[in-house]
Every structure is written in structure tokens, then in C-alpha cells.
Amino acid sequence: MAHTQETRDNVRRIYIEGMPLTGAAACCGVSYDTAREWKRAAKERGDDWDTARAAYRVSELGVDELNKQLVEDFARQVITTTRELEGSSLPASEKALLLAQLADAYAKFSKAFSRINPQFSGLSVALDTLKTVVDLLQKRDPQALRALQPHIDEIGAVLGKRYG
After folding, report:
1. Cα-to-chain-centroid distance, residue 53
2. What is the pTM assigned to this prediction?
């Protein structure tokens, strides 16, 4: 079924305004695969929807608010992943490995973000310290790491309040 240019433009607009592509497609009565293809084809023509989306967020929120939102979004993903790990049936050794990888990703994000936002550097150091602790416990005392796991959310919240 052929869609009108107006439908394509609406999918693009809704996506740029912040809705996930799946939601934008559904709102306009288009399959996700079709919307994804439109997005890909537009990028080949020089219309990068992701760049437009980022520009829209900056213009709507301002740079400081956008930076805060980026940190909050990433932290929310870390917390969600941690909670899912707590409830999973994975062996403790796999959970510890995944937690260490998650801490590493968070530390890398923090380090990169602190370069563009100096206020964030205190939190970056604190989170890097937490990553160091997780790495050390993973190697030397996995049982202690399992004991620490339920407290990661609270520790992150305290660090966020203190340095964020």
C-alpha cells in the first residue's frame, strides 16, 4: 500500500519530536519496517532524522536541560538493567560479569560526558570509583559483589544527589 507524502512527513515529525520510531509509525498507521525504510532512505538523501531529533531536543530544552536529560536517561537504563538482573535466574557468576560490564559502560559514559560538561566530572569520579570496587570484588570476592548488588540503586541515588 502506497502512503502519502503527508503520512511520511507526519512519521518524521512525530519521531523528531521524541516518540520512538515504533510509536510514530503506529500513530500514523504505518508498519515499523516501512517507517524504518523511510528513515534510512531519508538519511541517504541527506535528511538524518536522528540529527534533526537531537537539534529539536536542544532547541526545545536548551543545552543544560538536554545534558541533564541524557544523564537521567542513561542512569534510568542502568537502574532498569540492574533490577532486571536482580530478578533473573542467571547464575551469580554471570550476573557479576554483567554488572561489571554495566559499571564499565556507565563509567565510560560518565568520563565522556564530563568532558563536555565539567559539572558532571565529580559524579564521573564517584562512578568510576564504584566501577573499581565492582571490578575488584568480581576478581577477589564474588560473594561480596552479590551482597553489594541489591544496594547499587541506592548508592547510585546517593552519588547522584551528592555530585549530580
Report:
1. 16
2. 0.41
- Residue among 159, 78, 153, 81 at smallest CA distance from 121: 159
Q: What are the C-alpha distances in Å from 16 to residues 52, 56, 115, 118? A: 6, 7, 26, 28
Alpha helices in the chain (DSSP H): 5-16, 21-27, 32-44, 49-61, 63-87, 92-116, 121-140, 142-148, 152-163
Condensed to tens digits (0 to 9), the pLDDT of residues 7-19 reads 999 999 888 888 8
DSSP states along 43-75: HHTT--HHHHHHHHHHHHH-HHHHHHHHHHHHH
Whether 3 contacts 30, CB under 8 Å: yes
